[in-house]
Amino acid sequence: MDSTNKVISYSDTFSSKFSLLPLLKYWEKQIEKNKVFALSYDYINEKLKKAPELLQPITDPDVIAKNYELIEELLNICLSPAIYENEFYAAVYPDRLDSFYSTPAFKRLQLFENQMNSSCFNENCCLTPDGKAIACFAWIMVLHYGLNINYEYPIIYTLIDTKTNLERHYRIRIYTWFCELKIKGELKQISKEEKKRLFENLDDPKILAEILPPDNFDIEGFLIYNAVDITDQEVISSLKFDLIQKESHISQIRFENLQHKLRVLLRKPDIKLGLIAFPTEKKDMKNALKMGSSIILQDTFIENEIATEFKIYDDVLNKRQVKIIYDINNYACSNKVREAFANSGLRNLLIAPLIYKDELIGILEIASSLPGDLNKINILKLTDVYPLLAICIESSLDDLNKSIQSIIKERCTAIHPSVEWRFREAARVYLNNLRNNVIIEMEDIVFENIYPFYGYSDVKDSSVSRNSAVRDDLIENLKLVQEIILTASHETDMPILEELSFRISGHMQQLKEGKILSIEMDAINFLRTEVEATLVYLKDLNPEIKVLISNYKEKLDPGYGFIFNKRKDIEDSLMLINETISTELDIQQSKAQKIFPHYFEKYKTDGVEYNMYLGSSLVEGDAFNQMHLKSLRLWQLVTMCIITKRCIELKHKLSVPLDTTHLIFVQNATLSIKFFYDEKKFDVAGSYDIRHEIIKKRIDKAVIKGSDERLSAPGKIAIVYSQESEAEDYRQYINFLKTKNYITSEIESFELADMQGIHGLKALRITVNSNLITDKNNDESKNDKTLK
């Protein structure tokens, strides 16, 4: 079959006819290739002579009903009887979403019955009218014009399983194997300009129809639909999205959502989830903290000190191994424990350690009322979930520690000097109320009509570099161990050493090829358990082996117990980059405060981001005007040029030569900021202003519209804005800085691709002169003169 026929669907825009002729043609092609098909075709051909109505386009449904058995035999060439009961296939009319033949499994999906229910399908799938039309136009462009277009937006169909009342997700693929795209008359020739317009408007069926009129084409035949259950992949992907993000603290709503997704993943509608964290260095149940909910830390269990009685949790803590109790009634534990579980209606229990950066950080609990409901087979699905939950708990503990620090300190002690006056004023009012026995909270501190500034210097692909370093270190670790094992195998007749060497090679190969988070953990656990135990035995085999093992141990990092060379180089490089950026910001900030007092805060991650807020309401007495705003915007741009140059110079001194990217977000519209006492920080006050915060969190991943190119690029500064008026001043600043040799080349202008909840962003991009400054003192004096 022609590979170009892998494109999907059809459209009401095009003339479509249901016909079996493309299928019959395919039968005829197979006669010479396959003797079995040849014999079958002779038999079917005799039947077709008695049903000539099947040899032309079919419009009468009675024709299908009358010849259903013959049609079923014809379809056997692509839909074998062997798949009939269990696979999801349907033969579908080309002009409507309905099938004339489907397997029982596909019928149970009720896809065509639910086609009008948008909640059953993912957004922008190819079953929409526009999606069908675009698919047809793409098919025409590939088949008849040889254009390189692959249009197959995934169709994800979701329904509720009647047995479990939980979601199941299916990937729907549509094949045009038995559809023919016919040209009426001569094929229209298209010009270069029309080709360009086609590519620029691939998502607009109206423009596509202007260039490629649908009346010039006929679609004849039928489609094959295939559904594949992808529930596990969808759930794990969704869990990754939920758990690996900045706002990953476990609220009750998030916990219940997590529990529901694990129920879907395991196909167990009644299981209960528990999460336990260890916020201190003491990893024992006395210092355990439930996150959302817990089995062993529920109130009735705590009151009866069940955790003290139930030693299996201590086993998990000490051995770091997953434990399953198939039936608590048959488990060797005290009557007190057994009775507590019976009162909770629980019989089956899984307990798994959660490890983050080689440290036990928490425990996962899953319980069921049915003995054996959770077992060693179905919990294999949780392999990829354990690391995600560990990351989530680590983030939650980080949030918790910040809150604890806020409680330990007095309210609002970490206040920026520029706004300290306002907090003193609010404190005076609060103390005065206390003296008058008026018990109320401190008044809200809100600053209105504030101009926001935002900047971000990020390390490009830091996560990729870090992951690569971890794997390289583990591979080196495994190589050293393998050398010892191979040497020892020559000194003894134990074949198990050769088998162990084989498994070491397997782990190294997995690390070289793998993209799954658990591969590193598997290698670490393998080194910590089997390899370490083997080395303990081998060290007394002979003096030569003992020396090899001693030399190997000396190469291990004492803090981690593994090779940590490349990872250390990455972390050292990241730290040096952050310190360089942060120090430069501090130096330049002292100058910026002299221009006009303003609020400033910065955060270190894999890079440094900062917020500035400027406005008359922030200051006490000083008169603010637009000159201050423009001066500080120019200051920010100059400072970013200097930071970019510092990072370029620094790259050659780093253990790992990492690149940095830099961006600024500009907004002319003012906003209101409010001090949130619980979080001890400023944040936007109004619901409209939240858009500013959303943009800040997402623009570092911004992509230039119409391409896959990221906006942020090494050696350049991206300036993101919404309104053209916001860019006017910056074009003037840029032209000025070009005369000062801060930047080179022309200004690049882009529209940015839409992001979730964000539309219409634009950007300027400039290239920093790598020869900007020869030494730091000249830099600072030159910066002073530029601002003046």
Question: Mind telling me the C-alpha Rg?
Answer: 33 Å
- As a percent range, the share of strand residues is 15-25%
How would a crystallographer describe the biggest sheet? Answer: 9 strands, mixed
- What percent of residues adopt helix (DSSP H or I)? 40-55%
Question: How would you describe this protein?
Answer:
A hairpin with a 6-residue loop joins strand 2 and strand 3 (99-102). The chain starts with 14 loop residues before the first strand and ends with a helix. It is globular. It has 25 helices and 22 strands. Helix 9 runs parallel beside helix 15. The strands form 4 sheets. Strands 14, 15, 16, 17, 18, 19, 20, 21 and 22 form a 9-stranded mixed beta sheet that branches. By secondary structure, it is of the alpha+beta class. The relative contact order is 0.06.
Condensed summary:
With 788 residues, the protein is an alpha+beta fold. It has 25 helices and 22 strands.
Keywords:
alpha+beta, 788 residues, 22 strands, five-stranded antiparallel beta sheet, globular, 44% helix
Mind sketching the topology for me?
Layout: E1 15-18, H1 21-30, H2 35-49, H3 61-66, H4 68-75, E2 88-92, E3 99-102, H5 104-109, H6 129-145, E4 155-160, E5 167-175, E6 179-183, H7 192-200, H8 205-211, E7 217-221, E8 223-229, H9 231-243, H10 252-266, E9 272-277, E10 289-290, H11 299-303, H12 306-309, H13 312-319, E11 323-325, H14 335-344, E12 348-356, E13 359-368, H15 385-408, H16 420-435, E14 446-459, H17 462-491, H18 496-513, H19 518-538, H20 543-554, H21 565-595, E15 599-605, E16 607-614, H22 626-651, E17 660-665, E18 671-676, E19 681-684, H23 690-698, E20 716-721, H24 724-739, E21 743-751, E22 762-768, H25 776-787
Parallel strand pairs: 1-7, 17-20
Antiparallel strand pairs: 2-3, 2-8, 4-5, 5-8, 6-7, 9-10, 9-13, 11-12, 12-13, 14-16, 14-17, 14-18, 15-16, 18-19, 20-22, 21-22
Helix pairs in contact: 9-10, 9-15, 17-18, 17-19, 17-20, 17-21, 18-19, 21-22, 22-24, 22-25
